[in-house]
Amino acid sequence: MTPQPQISSSPDPVPQLDLAAQYTAIGGEIRAAVEKVLASQQFVLGREGAAFEKEIASLCGVAHGIGVASGTDALILALRACGVQAGDEVLLPAFTFVATGSAVSALGAKPVFADIRPETYNVDPAEFERRVTPGTRAIVVVHLYGLPADMDPILAFAKARGLPVVEDNAQAIGASYKGVRTGALGDAACFSFYPTKNLGACGDAGLVTTNSAELAARIRTLRNHGQSGKYLSTEPGWNSRLDEIQAAILRVKLRHLSNWQRARQTNAAEYTRLLNQIPGVMPPAVPEGFEHVFHQYTIRIERRDALHQFLNERKIGSTVYYPYPLHLQPLYASLGYKPGDFPHAERAAQEVLSLPMYPELCKEQIARVVECIAEFMKC
Q1: Could you give the CA distance from residue 268 to residue 355 in angstroms, rounded to a whole number?
Q2: 295 Cβ partners below 8 Å, 6+ apart?
Q3: How many CB atoms within 10 Å of residue 63?
Q4: Cα three-residue angle 300-301-302, rounded to 5 degrees
Q5: CA 271 from chain center: how many Å?
């Protein structure tokens, strides 16, 4: 009898994110919520959006939530409501997604970058003193990867100078800083519900939270063509409204957010336990008093690009967030920044790598990822 060739089996891929697993678990709830909106035939500024605004405000412990069309729009409208105009300067970290800076640029204002703390990737509050000028009108603070920035010194700095603070909370919904939820720390906070976020829509969606009735009213006007009454516009505005279908989907997912958050934190703890045994790999830091919700589980390694390729060849997903600090983006070439201006941001851009992270990730998958990293480190 002729021997049959052996069929080699390889481990299943480990994606960096698995939205299909989430939908498998709650797809029925989502479809029912969407059907309810379709039956109502109310698609813009309706009951679902209003309810979702209240639920997010309650989650954060603030008075107001204002739904908008995207996280970028949330930043633009919040900054405009805080008084930022063309020609003003806005302080923000050099290491973040480009939307944080482009929202400033969209208003004709100038982003003024600040370097980060290398251990947390969030802005170094001491940098603001070096960068502030008489033209500074606001500060944007990013809670990167799901870890809150160090807010006490930032808020003290802002208060002393009468500057509003806007939180970019796109990646940190549910996180907390010294017992206070992100989204309640600044004058306003901006959320993205892009599908890949910890609380993700089935499309673009965003929201602003604030304790200020004045800011909330202004943002509601700005998001709806600057209308203060029906067909009565008092200033230029935007068409940036959270639609009812996305709001309904997000309300379903919000019911699961706390469980998903705990699962992410459990997965992160397992990663860290295993990675602490591998010299040369730096797991994410979580300072005392900070609650990390792990939108990304981001390690640091000198041979980042080689590891990225090594994992890809073994069908393990990983992503670089972000390969270019803002001051070196072509978009901002006219500002005159150069390599070396923000060394911590630049080094982070060369060394960070985000590993698979989602609530449905299992211990066996985490172990496989770490085993491959350990194998790489022996090369």
Answers
A1: 10
A2: 145, 146, 171, 172, 197, 198, 357
A3: 14
A4: 135
A5: 21
Is it the case that residue 4 has pLDDT exceeding 90? Answer: no
0.85 exceeded by the pTM?
Answer: yes
Q: What is the pLDDT of residues 266-316, one digit of tens each?
A: 999 999 999 999 999 999 999 999 999 999 999 999 999 999 999 999 999
Angle in degrees, 0-180, between the axes of helices 244-254 and 47-60, rounded to the nearest 10: 40
Model confidence at 358, pLDDT cuts 50, 70, 90, reads very high
Q: Is 368 helix (H, G, I), strand (E, B) or coil?
A: helix
User: In terms of C-beta density within 10 A (0-12 exposed, 13-18 middle, 19 or more buried), how is residue 229 classed?
Assistant: exposed
Q: Is 63 helix (H, G, I), strand (E, B) or coil?
A: coil
Please state, in angstroms and rounded to a whole number, the distance separating the CA atoms of residues 283 and 299: 5
What are the beta bridge partners of residue 290? 177
* Residue 115: pLDDT over 90: yes
Q: 337 to each of 128, 207, 343, how far by Cα in Å?
A: 17, 32, 12
CA 89, 53, 260: angle at the middle one, nearest 5?
95
State what percent of residues in the chain have pLDDT above 70: 97
Q: Are strands 176-177 and 290-291 parallel, antiparallel or unpaired?
A: antiparallel
Q: Report how far residue 350's alpha carbon sits from residue 375's, in angstroms, rounded to the nearest whole number.
A: 21
Residue-wise pLDDT tens digits, 40-83: 999 999 999 999 999 999 999 999 999 999 999 999 999 999 99
The CA-CA-CA angle for residues 295, 243, 143, to 5°, reads 25
Peptide bond into 322 cis (omega under 30): yes
Q: Which domains does the chain have, with CATH numbers?
A: 21-114+121-254 (3.40.640.10), 257-377 (3.90.1150.10)
The answer to whether residue 379 scores a pLDDT higher than 90 is no
| Strands 165-168 and 136-142, sheet pairing | parallel
Residue 9: pLDDT band (50, 70, 90) is low
pLDDT at 11 over 50: yes
